[in-house]
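Why does residue order matter? Because the sequence determines the fold. Keep that principle in mind as you read this record.
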Amino acid sequence: VSDILLITWYITYNYPPTSKRDRLFKFYGKDYSGDSFLIYPEGIYKYRKSASDSEWAAYIGVASYRSYNEYLLHNKLTIEVERVPKRLQPIILKNRLLKIEDGHIHFLYEKSHTEKK
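Structure:
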């Protein structure tokens, strides 16, 4: 869980590790590009105390199933529940940062709950 938050922090702020003993060192310089996205990753660190590290890791993990192309084409910030593995659905239901509404998962700090369908 803490590695997920550390990698996301590195991708967001692009700070190099301070030494070889820095936990960030083993993740530094790797390519983390892909088709998924977070619109407001800074919110994770601004509001980090509003939820547990496990909830934030799940937030990031569920966001990894979203398509950046769908966002670019349709400005879509939600993801359909059926696109996420069923084994994650109980975790989503307990997560204060995620909300399921009308078959879509909404991300609290991406303002997707106000998005027009």
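Residues 36-114 form one domain.
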